[in-house]
Amino acid sequence: MSDVRRRPRHVWAKLLLLAMVCYFLVPVWWLVVASTKDAPGLFAGSGALWFSGFHLFDNLGDLFTHNNGEYLRWLGNSVRYAFAGGVGCTIVSVLAGYGFAKFDFRGRGVVFALVLGSVMVPLTALVIPTFVMMSNVGLTDTIWAVILPSLLSPFAVYLMRVYAAVSVPDELLDAARIDGAGELRTFLRVSLPLMRPGVVTVLLLSVVGTWNNYFLPLTMLSSSKLYPLTVGIGLWSQLASSNNGGGQSLWNLIIVGSLVSIIPLVIAFLTLQRYWQGGLAVGSLK
Amino acid sequence: MAATVDTRPSTPRAVASDPPGTAPARRRSARRGALGWLFILPFLIVFVVFLIGPLAYAGYLSLYTKGLATGTTFAGLDNYTRAFGDPSFRKGLWFVLRFSLVVIPLQMIVALVAALVLDEVTGRLARFSRLVIFLPYAIPAVLGALMWGFLYSPSFGPIEQLASAFDVRAPFLLSQGNIFYGLLNVVTWQWAGYYMIIIYAALQSIDSSVYEAARMDGANARQIALRIKVPMVTSALTLILIFSLIGTLQFFTEPQILGPIANGTVTPDFTPNIYAFNLAFRYAQFNYASAISFALGFVVFVAVAIFMIVTRKKGSIFT
After folding, report:
1. Is residue B70 situated within a structural domain?
2. End-to-end distance of chain A based on CA atoms, in angstroms?
3. Which residues are listed as membrane-spanning (chain A) (predicted)?
């Protein structure tokens, strides 16, 4: 009986879901369609959401060869920054979160309160002073200017502290200690495997954070050789809109370049969804 | 770091003065204490160099002015009185405050409704929708803004094409009067899915026996959603609210990217962050730009603190 009653309600729920799917998918759908068009097709007066002609491979060829293949260089830079910044940030944050959760040391409360308070500091407000500091030591316009500040994520530390507290039982640590395992060994062999979903979540969040960052590299880097994709495509769009008409072919590159650059992260999220969905749950619980 | 040095010599003393029975336990926990510092040390270094350092440096820079003729001179709080009296800064601040007041509730409602529906409906459509709604989070804000910029375009965007099919002109969502709504849409699209996943994860972790009990008491699905589910995810909602408040007040990427397409709607003082960026890199006024950054940071900090005091209750994340 309750089944019969539930059915109409779920129909509305499903319609609502479909509407949401359409809304969230429209820009991506448009991007896919537009990537297959040549310049005249793109700027035709109608049919922006449907295919006309198939020039995807021409566009890809143009994309990878434009200006001596600067797109590929930007892609490589993005991968490098996201990997170094993301992995580095994860290591630093996992160690710290574990330290805060599982060790009792003097000053822990004060330091952790400081870290929590700093979650409220808007990180972009630090970009300009960081730039001035970096330029004093001659590090601006180097890869370090982008990677080093990316290592900082107070929220990741908070998340890992909660996660370590929930997922690593103290009894297990004591048992490992009694067996004579050192702290580092215990951490690597016992705790780390238990914290895996949390670690993957923090890794994904920090990789995405670095991959998507725009303000920091825009500020720190002046030579386009070092740009990540976000800043590079931002530059293209500025060039394209500043010379209306002449920039039409550049718009094609921007579109197909955007499509290529969102693929890696989408794949990462799809393949790792089992981990991050669980990891986020714990972060929002406490 | 000084404390690492501190704890070691104190160990033997603590052991010596303790009753014999507790000595081994104490010794172990003291050793663990020193190791605890080692675990957080790498983070502490990053924290001091890239958070405390720039913050202190910004504070220091903001107390000085640099003139071509006068050189660097101490200015006290002049930069701040200038900042809070600066119509450009006030205009930008007013814009982001107004924008937060609209965009945050909007995002949260979209995220909450999506999460509640996804918590109720199961099956292939639900799984697919969950991923699609989350998808924009994996897309850089730069590209999200560019895509919507295209969709808004009056010359070849689908919105205009749809409108012209009905013989009307669609509003250009990046014009002076409409850019508020244009940006509202971009930001909601970009972030609602991420917030949805956080709420959804919190909903999934609720023990379903609670619903059974409520159903036995005659509660219907809407009552369960509003009276049980929503209150049980308040801490997730608080977390989201704080994050989106911090994020929105620092608004930079989307207007910066849409600026060239929007034909001058995005002024160099559109938001405080854009203003600080332009002061620093167009006009080389690093001291005043630091003061603006610091003042913005202060406003964000105060806004979040006020919010947390107002909503303070047990179980919220920062207690």
Report:
1. no
2. 38
3. 12-33, 78-98, 110-131, 143-164, 194-214, 250-272
* Domain encompassing residue B142: 87-310
Structure ipTM? 0.88
Where does A55-285 sit in CATH, by number?
A: 1.10.3720.10
Q: What's the pLDDT tens digit per position in A144-176?
A: 999 999 999 998 998 899 889 888 888 888 888
Same domain? B130 vs B209: yes
Q: Does residue B183 share a domain with residue B139?
A: yes
For the domain that residue B175 is a member of, what is the CATH number? 1.10.3720.10
Instruction: Give the type of residue at B12.
Output: P
Q: How far apart are alpha carbons B319 and B317 in whole angstroms?
A: 6
Whether A214 and B252 lie within 8 Å, measured CB to CB: yes
Sign of CA dihedral A217, A222, A227, A232: positive
* Nearest CB partner across the interface for A233, out of B142, B249, B281: B142
Q: Are residues B141 and B9 in the same domain?
A: no
Partners of residue A105 in chain B, C-beta under 8 Å: 3, 7, 32-34, 36-37
Take residue B99 and report the two structure tokens written for it: 């924008």
**Chain B hits for A157, Cβ within 8 Å:** 43
Please report the sign of the dihedral spanned by the C-alpha atoms of residue A246, residue B269, residue A233, residue A138.
Answer: positive
> Is residue B65 in a domain?
no
Same domain as B297, residue B151? yes
Q: Are residues B161 and B212 in the same domain?
A: yes
B126-146 as b/e: b if 16+ CB within 10 A? beebbbbbbbbbbbbbbbbbb
Domain for residue B82, yes or no?
A: no
Structure tokens at A171: 């009894």
Q: How many domains does chain B have?
A: 2
- Of B290, B277, B287, nearest in space to B75 by CA: B287
For residue B45, give both structure tokens: 């270094």
For residues B38 and B92, membership in a common domain is answered with no
Residue B68 tokens, joined? 């071509």
DSSP B227: I
Rounded distance between C-alpha atoms, residue A217 and residue B52, angstroms: 20
- For residue B165, give the 3-state DSSP assignment: helix
Selection from A186, A166, A187, A164 nearest residue A177 by Cα: A186
* 50-89 in chain A: CB under 8 A from chain B: none
Nearest by Cα to B34 from A187, A180, A106, A181: A106
A250-279 b/e with 16+ CB inside 10 Å = b?
A: bbbbbbbbbbbbbebbeebbeebbebbbbb
Q: Where are the domains of chain A?
A: 55-285
Bridge partner list, B73: B65
Looking at the domain assignment, is residue B193 inside a domain? yes
Distance linking the first and last C-alpha atoms of chain B:
26
- Under a CB-based contact definition with an 8 Å cutoff, are residues B304 and A121 in contact? no
Nearest to B138 among A102, A124, A265 (CB): A265
- Residue B39: pLDDT band with limits 50, 70, 90: very high
